[in-house]
Amino acid sequence: LLSHFKISTRTEFTNFKCKSLDKEFADFEYCTLKAVNRSYKYVSTKVKLFQVPITKVKVNFGLYKRFSGYRPFLYNITVDACNFLKNPKSNPITSYFYDFIKDISNMNHTCPFDHDLILDKLSTEHINHRVTDILSFPEGDYMMEMHWIAYDITRAVVKLYVSIS
Prior knowledge:
Ganglioside M2 Activator Protein, Chain: A, DUF1091, three-stranded antiparallel sheet, mainly beta, disordered N terminus
């Protein structure tokens, strides 16, 4: 009897925020959370780069879970993006999170970056598959916060809010 029941998890985007801290270096052309219907949502963003080529990039990403405010949960890592992109298998945790975006962005090559950066339609379906089938996360509200650092100066902060139920 129990073999006929399947536990299903549902992932939903609740917010998406992008902030440029140095508008002379880079700025967001758009940063959108779009609901196509009740069950299909996606996020997209485009970053205009004004000082190309960019040859030195780090990303600090932290995962937070909401417990009376957002508190650190599992990961807070800073990665040299240029080195990571040369060898993605060098860091399994970063690779797990990079796999969310590598097929739907143009940030899928090694440095230098000499073009605008685009993330196109990261869907809840894609997130749901990764946070349930590949590495399960407990139910709750989460925030992924990313600090994009070029030449050792934080240039932008991106926050993606997700609810898993």
